[in-house]
Specification:
By secondary structure, the chain is an all-alpha fold. The protein has helices at 3-14, 19-30, 34-47, 49-92, 95-145. The two termini are 35 Å apart.
């Protein structure tokens, strides 16, 4: 296949298009069988992985940063609710306040713990995404610099 078709496939993959749609179009327009077209798309995807990542990187980095901030916020709110039960208990100090602290904990801690777990998962997921995107870009830069 010529370079124009390869560029078209790279552009469509970078845009996030489903590879099956690209394969179907190759079968329709160039008369390839499905396995031939699938092998060609996978080959192009492997050869041009850095280009595809580079074209996707602005969106991916923005999305990962947004998810990171939301995750930190969710962890902060969850920890605030968990730790506020201890402040309620230690400020009053009476035995009747123990029941209030237990009641508070039973009402808010399941949701707060869920927020902390969600926040932690979001932060870790965004860090993995940033590492994959930035890692490929940094590897390319270091290769050009000879490092």
């Amino acid at each position: 296949m010529d370079a124009k078709i390869t560029q078209s496939i790279v552009r469509r993959l970078a845009a996030g298009e489903n590879p099956d749609d690209i394969i179907y179009d190759l079968c329709q327009t160039h008369g390839l069988t499905w396995p031939e077209a699938e092998a060609r798309v996978q080959e192009i995807q492997a050869e041009h992985e850095e280009t595809i990542l580079r074209k996707q990187s602005p969106l991916m980095i923005t999305l990962a940063a947004l998810i990171f901030v939301v995750g930190l916020g969710a962890m902060g709110v969850g920890l605030y609710f968990i730790l506020s039960a201890f402040t309620v208990y230690t400020e009053a100090g009476g035995p009747s306040n123990v029941l209030g602290a237990i009641s508070y904990a039973l009402n808010y801690w399941p949701a707060a713990a869920t927020m902390v777990i969600f926040g932690f998962s979001a932060v870790m997921g965004s860090m993995i995404g940033m590492h994959k995107t930035l890692g490929a870009l940094l590897d390319r830069i270091f290769d050009r610099l000879g490092l």
